[in-house]
Amino acid sequence: LQVSHLGPIKSADVAFKDLTVIVGPQATGKSIFLQTLKLLVDRDKIHKTFREHGTSFNGAARAFMEGYFGRGLSSAWGSQSNMVWNGTPVVLPEYAKPTKSKKVYERMFYIPAQRVMSMPRGESQNFGQFHYGDPYTLRAFSDAVHDLIQNEFGAKGELFPGPNRLNETLRKPIQTHLFGGNRLEIDAKDFTKRVGLHVKGQSEPLGFLSWSAGQREFTPMLMGVYWLCPTTNRRKTGKTAEECIEWVVIEEPEMGLHPQGIAAVLLLVLELMRRGYKVVLSTHSPVVLDMVWALQEFK
Predict the structure, then answer these.
(1) Confidence band (pLDDT; 50, 70, 90) for 295?
(2) d(C-alpha 137, C-alpha 282), whole Å
(3) Confidence band (pLDDT; 50, 70, 90) for 126?
(4) How far apart (Å, rounded) are the C-alpha atoms in residues 120 and 4?
(5) What band does 282 get if pLDDT is binned at 50, 70 and 90?
(6) Cα(95)–Cα(287) distance, rounded to whole angstroms?
(7) How does pLDDT run across 161-174, given as a tens digit for each residue?
(8) Are 2 and 12 in contact (CB under 8 A)?
(9) What is the tens place of the pLDDT at every residue in 21-76?
(10) Residue 136: CB atoms within 10 Å
């Protein structure tokens, strides 16, 4: 993907591999670059999701840009903007309308930097609970987590360390370095399913706002990994076994975490790669860069 003069991006040229890591200072355009990648990969699925929730842009580019990227970002594409995707020039405002393809399924799962907003007070939020102008990537991620918590895990009670999602090698460092040996569970008090942290020796689970900042940041990301790791290797999103998630984007996986917690998260990244996902990270963490260096050394 080659981009120039898109929002704060002066110039970018990225060739994506099995693992791609994007590093840069604050406000240099990492998020808008990755959100653009999502739009290029999942154009028709994005429009279908908006339609299913009562929003149709009728080709209005400014309205679509505000609804997809977020309020205030409709001017990101200007007269000097250029983009090339897989060798083909792209005019981003044309993506304000879907193609005529009848084969619509999601190919990229996006875990955004604002993921903690998907679970205010520990209560999951669906797509429609957000507002026009809230970034699409946050709304879609939140919707997937909401379905997981309210339906798939709602009747089970325990979210972590359940034995059916991740193997012991992955669970142990998470339990040690992120949850301190405590359990993550569904708290259904007050007729509302919310996420609680069950601490040994206490009868009531800790409410979401009583957790550490790292636990609040990590838990939505863990739910996203759960969604990506069904019993089969990859999450199916279409009618056939081949129509499944191919890409995973994780923004700032290190947010709020101690280096040992970041290392536990990077094990999850390796698990996603093992399952066949192409993973893209944006980061400010030297711990993540250490992992990339180590992988190159092993190769």
Answers:
(1) confident
(2) 15
(3) very high
(4) 36
(5) very high
(6) 37
(7) 976 789 999 999 99
(8) yes
(9) 999 888 899 999 999 999 999 999 999 999 999 999 999 999 999 999 999 999 99
(10) 23
Tokens of 69: 């990227």
Beta bridge partners of 3: 12, 83
- Among residues 63, 52, 68, the alpha carbon closest in space to that of 126 is found at 52
Phi, psi for 253 (deg, rounded to 5): -65, -15
**How far apart are the C-alpha atoms of 176 and 1, rounded to whole Å?**
39
CA torsion sign for 269, 46, 114, 164 is negative
**CA atoms lying within 13 Å on the CB side of residue 26:** 1
